[in-house]
Write a sequence for this structure.
């Protein structure tokens, strides 16, 4: 089994990542990697990612943009 990420623009079109990904042996390895490089991917033009196992979508798209904090003022 191979775990991979698909890198997308906000409209869902595929884009080349700023950081070269690899195939990961486990879902945990793939998720750890995205946690380490998401800011570089975002700065390089990716807006969201989708996790795939052997070409089948596991989850996503998941935004790389930080959630806006809502406050009651």
């Amino acid at each position: 089994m191979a775990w991979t990420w698909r890198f997308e623009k906000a409209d869902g079109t595929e884009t080349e990542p700023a950081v070269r990904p690899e195939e990961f042996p486990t879902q945990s390895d793939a998720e750890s990697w995205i946690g380490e490089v998401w800011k570089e991917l975002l700065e390089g033009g990716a807006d969201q990612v989708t996790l795939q196992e052997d070409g089948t979508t596991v989850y996503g798209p998941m935004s790389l943009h930080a959630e806006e904090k809502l406050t009651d003022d």
The helical segments are 27-43. Strands lie at 3-8, 48-53, 56-63.
